[in-house]
Amino acid sequence: MRDFVLAGLVACAGLAVCGGERAQSAPSVAPSPSFVSSKEPKSAAAPVAAATLEPIADARLGAIDHAVDLALMEGRFPGCVVVVGRRDKVLFRHAYGFRAYAPEPEEMTLDTVFDLASLTKPMATASSIMVLVDRGLVRLDEPAARYVPEFGRAGKGAITVRQLLTHVSGLPVETPLRDFELGRAVAMERIYDLVPRTPPGQTFVYSDVGFLVLEEVVKRVSGEELSTFAAKNVFRPLGMSQTTFRPEPALRPRAVVTEQRNGEWMRGEVHDPRAYLLGGVAGHAGLFSTAEDLTRYAQAMLGEGELDGQRVWSPRTAQQFMAPHDVPGGIRALGWDVKSSYSGSRGEGWSPRSIGHGGYTGTVLWIDPERDLFVIVLSNRVHPEGKGNINQLAGRIGTLVAHSPPAGGETAAIANPGRGGAVSGAVMPGAVLPGIDVLRAEQFHRLRGAKVGLVTHAAGKARDGRSTIDVLAAAHDVKLVALFTPEHGLGSDREGKIADARDAKSGLPIYSLYGRGENGFEPSPESLASIDTFVVDLQDAGVRFYTYASTLRHLMHAAAKHHVRVVVLDRPNPINGIDVAGPVLVPVAKSFVNESALPVRHGMTMGELALLFNAEDHAGTPLEVVPMRGWRRGDYFDKTGLAWTPPSPNLRSVTETVLYPAVGLLEGTNLSVGRGTEMPFEVIGAPWIDGNALASALRAANVSGVTFAPVTFTPRQAVYAGQRCGGVRLTVQQRASFEPVHTGLALAQALRALYPKEWHFADLDKLLADRKVLEALDARRPLADVEAMWAGELEAFKVKRAKYLLY
């Protein structure tokens, strides 16, 4: 076979790129933010690029060409077609190399027809499922056996459609080839008899089997074969006239050649052996298409289900289709990859909302709705010997594209938001720029033309001390329409339920997200009428039982339902972004104060929590996070160079915030935690506590990093207002060894032992939210044993958490 490769290179007369001319001098048009190149097909059989091709000279153009040249010279594949575009324009397209070495050399052209292999899964099968979901004929969280009763055999009755789409069904990768040699009916019967390898939802295993079942769901619900249904309801409405199973004779001469089967070269014949034995139509493989048709599909996805006036899915269903899903070991979407072990073709710099997929034959498609970008790389890397590789090149191209300037051509002052990088040259250690400063340095390009509802409070400030309200109000081409506030109100100084109001300074309406009636944790319909974007700038405390993360989560769900974008301006976790501790909340314990499956200390920022919530809830919220610059995960807030503004009335200092996970853990009981004093969360007491006895017991417990001194105090308000309380004052001596959750439990053990009648121990569960841990404490088990009870779930959370960390 190597002779075919050599013959191809010779036929190229020493040129690595054989697909036509390089980028030509651009016409006089407005500059685009990215690249352009085009090679028109020799064949007139199909028009190319109905979308506008926007030329521009860009250094990345040469970089793409160079990357492909190098891969061709290394013999990684015979040829390829590369397309880069946005919703309304094609920025770059070029054909390179050969579509065949054998039986004779053929030059690659833009109208070449490719065997898409596993791109069939999202483009045909998942797309068809989502059409049925949109019509109310299929429900994602219903068991697949509702639609295909035979599938419910052998313990598979609980496997849902969503679990099949995200490859967490417990089904294997594939079933034996011999099953397919006996025909479709036998192959499916063998699948129906399969016993799941793991319970549904427990493991991620990329499964062709699951998509054969989904193909059957389409057939049973619609009454049509997948090939017919997808053509009528997806491909034809989108003008994808060259996308089909089993290409007709007119398309076959333009198809790539893959490998040999029974001594004959495969051209226009599905490469996948199981799909071949099923007659060329299967839920996991068998689709053929061109770069032009994939361009139209990608633009429809960026258009949330619509292209050229033709709508395939409603915007809400399109959001669901692209919504990230947290799965064991990665992030997937419905039929799509997001970030997993299969993401080698993705490249770097893509947003957390990007989706993509690859095919075994050498086909790749990535779509980023946040960046309004898509990349298509189509090859026949299996020709001639099945040993080629396209993922490395696709990833390189994806990285080049993702790091292109933002939409509109402006050059952002900040390169590479996220890990590393710099703002206007450098960020000095300890000089953190929160998300609002990064947004301002980017010249607000993410919000151009937006009608903004700002969710903020007193701590929402830029580094120079200006409020985020003032910064956005002064931003060019950004319309600040309304303000939304969490618990404690706009001034971060109020307690209890808060009513709607109007801001005296700006004149803007203020809508409360804490206690505004029966549905008081979500924005009202009237408040959403005039906005298209939520901007969230809230300083969190880094603790599970602090309500701002719950506010964010509720807001994201409301935004998804009402088709409103959410942009989170990130801020530091004030008690550092490394330490994670405490039991993980179980679903039965959920409340607005304790809502999310987080440990007591989660070690995440609000932006990272937003990414996790979006993937856990798969609500499809249009979400963007504006990362900070210069923050190091190990830094407490007082190492950031930012001024501390209390995010709530009783977190007046970083010291109190550091102690909050320890002392706040006990606040649901009949204890004063210092509210109404000058030392909130630095003291704990009650009228019936002997401070000397409690301090002595805590010293005997050898709690590291903190000291306990007897104290008396009289709260002016809250618990025991006006009553003299005995207790202890906590002083953190060594943050590195201080463990707040351990300290809180040590306090609980000492109080339980000293005051079994006076202290309402059972109420500890209001914020601890773990009955088994409560029982272990009541049994006076050693703290090391108690903490071991949540070690497994905490490690599992750390694995999940790692997928969403931005710094």
Task: Give structural attributes.
807 residues, Beta-lactamase, Rossmann fold, Aspartate Aminotransferase, domain 1, seven-stranded mixed β-sheet
Terminal CA distance:
47 Å
CATH homologous superfamily identity of one domain: DD-peptidase/beta-lactamase superfamily
Largest β sheet strand count, sense and barrel closure: 7 strands, mixed
Mean pLDDT: 90
- Helix/strand/pairing category: alpha+beta
Number of helices: 24
Work out the strand percent. 15-25%
Rg, alpha carbons: 30 Å
Q: What is the CATH fold-level name of one domain? A: Beta-lactamase
DSSP E strands, number: 27
Give the overall shape, derived from the CA principal axes.
elongated
* Low-pLDDT stretches: 1-57, 406-427
Q: Identify the CATH class of one domain.
A: Alpha Beta
CATH architectural designation of one domain: 3-Layer(aba) Sandwich
User: Percent of residues in helical segments?
Assistant: 25-40%
Could you describe the 3D structure shown?
The model is unreliable at 1-57 and 406-427 (pLDDT under 50). Strands 1, 2, 3, 4, 15, 16 and 17 form a seven-stranded mixed β-sheet that branches. Strands 20-21-19-18-22-23-24 form a seven-stranded mixed β-sheet, with helices on both faces. The protein is elongated. The two termini are 47 Å apart. Among the domains are: 115-325, DD-peptidase/beta-lactamase superfamily (Beta-lactamase, 3-Layer(aba) Sandwich); 435-639, Uncharacterised protein PF07075, DUF1343 (Rossmann fold, 3-Layer(aba) Sandwich); 654-769, Aspartate Aminotransferase, domain 1 (Alpha-Beta Complex), CATH 3.90.1150. The chain has 24 helices and 27 strands. With 807 residues, the chain is α+β, with helices and mostly antiparallel strands. The longest helix has 15 residues, at 59-73. The protein is 29% helix and 15% strand. Pfam families: Beta-lactamase, NamZ_C, NamZ_N. This is DUF1343 domain-containing protein.
